[in-house]
Amino acid sequence: MRPVTRNNTICARLTDAPLGRMVVAALVALLLLAASDLPAQVHSSARSAAMGGAYTGLAKGVDAARYNPANLGLKDYQRFSIELVSVGVNVSNNSFTLDDYNKYTGAVLSTADKQDILNKIPGEGLKIDADVQATALSLAVGNLAFTVTGFAAADINLNKDIVELLLNGNTFADTIHVTGSYSDGISYGTAGISYGTAIYGSGSRQLSVGATAKYIHGLAVEQLVELEGLAATYETGFQGSGRAVIRTADGGHGYGLDLGAALKFNDTYTAGVRVQNVLGHISWNKGTQEHGYIFEFETATVDDIEEDDYIGSDDYSIDIDGFRTTLPTVMNVGFAKASGRLLWAVDWIQGLGNSPGASTKPHLAVGAEYSLLKMLPVRAGYATGGDKNAAFSFGTGLRLMGFYLDAAVFTGTTGSVYSTKGANFAVSTGLQL
User: Fold this and answer.
1) What global pTM score does this model have?
2) What is the 3 state secondary structure string of the chain?
3) CATH number of the domain at 5-432, out of 2.30.29, 1.10.155, 2.60.40, 2.40.160?
4) For every one of its 433 residues, what pLDDT tens digit does the chain have, with 9 covering 90 and above?
5) Domain residue spans in the chain?
């Protein structure tokens, strides 16, 4: 480990800025350090996204490798398919809709407006999620599939005290905490090989199992190891302190395993279960560092400030030994009607731990696809629960001589784009025979 490199600074004297600005600057700096430069579970399959993510019982070909490798063992689910590119993006928050954004952006906020904004933020704080998943040049032949996928996720949470401070400033006998704020992010790429095989068959009934083995190349990680701090105002002045410690890396490698089982009851109905990232991990060994930021200011007032009254801050960066992170383990259980003009599916998604891209809160997704014209399917879905916003989804596709182009978008709880709390969309294109 190399010696610590420190940058010691003495901030501006208290007479250089109003009291409220001083407190805001110190706390916001602490939060921005924890929340900035994060590398960005979301559906790269636009067909899945349009159906709310209810896809475990319907995925075929390349999609089967991602959503349930056991489907590759079902005779009717084996497809020769090449996916050229598929991208899914989600940036969302837990508090404000597009309508709120249009209402308040650029406006002069009244006291009632500020209170309305605060009322929309849950007690746990303002949460912001960013998730991206993309695949390129993936191939499925029979009961085998090869996939290349990139994934990134970031979770950021701001304590409600911080938002109130930014809106209203600090007041007498007020204490501002950063406890409950956090940020974590990770990005990596995977190369996987999937295989599914039937282990039982009787007429149209089939039972299959499958697995996807993945090599994982870590691109970047940023973890908030420690965050604490407060600022309090008193009759005699104000004081506060805070500390943030962040661990980062810019390279690593690891392995992961997805396991699945699928049961085809007859020519119409199918059920399946998949557990993603069993024993999945990344060992980070490139550019591993710890970064820290500390500030402290003593009781003082603007009126009786003296020459020696300052706000002190200290930040450092040090090289550290390599470390290991585990990937989010998620279980999907699905049931689907998989034949006819009208298809539908229901999925239960359960994270087996809380981490960027997964939540232990259960998530329910339902979706349907109707093909009046086989070449122009229409899709819709609804998803709720977990750590994501409840939302409707809509999409369509084009099927022409094996070529497909799918697109999907999520809206809010009313189905209107103005009720959405962020941006969530997906596009997929390729060839399936």
Assistant:
1) 0.81
2) CCCCEEEEEECCCHHHCCHHHHHHHHHHHHHHHHHCCCCCCCCCCHHHHHCCCCCCCCCCCHHHHHHCHHHHHCHHHCCCEEEEEEEEEEEEECCCCHHHHHHHCCCCCCHHHHHHHHHHCCCCCEEEEEEEEEEEEEEEECCEEEEEEEEEEEEEEECHHHHHHHHHCCCCCCEEECCCCEEEEEEEEEEEEEEEEEEEEECCEEEEEEEEEEEEEEEEEEEEEEEEEEEEEECCEEEEEEEEEEEEECCEEEEEEEEEEEEECCCCEEEEEEEEEEEEEEEECCCCEEEEEEEEEEEECCCCCCCCCCEEEEEEEEECCCEEEECCCEEEEEEEECCCCEEEEEEEEEECCCECCECCCCEEEEEEEECCCCCCCEEEEEEEECCCCCEEEEEEEEEECCEEEEEEEECCCCCCHHHCCEEEEEEEEEEEC
3) 2.40.160
4) 333 333 333 233 333 333 333 333 433 333 333 333 333 357 889 999 999 999 999 999 999 999 999 999 998 898 899 999 999 998 888 899 989 988 888 888 898 998 999 999 988 888 888 889 999 899 999 999 999 999 888 888 888 877 777 777 666 556 676 777 777 888 999 999 999 999 999 989 999 999 999 999 999 999 888 888 776 766 556 677 788 899 999 999 999 999 999 999 999 999 999 999 998 999 999 999 999 988 776 655 544 445 444 456 688 999 999 999 988 899 999 999 999 999 999 999 998 877 655 678 899 999 999 999 989 999 999 999 887 778 999 999 999 999 999 999 998 887 777 888 888 899 999 998 8
5) 5-432
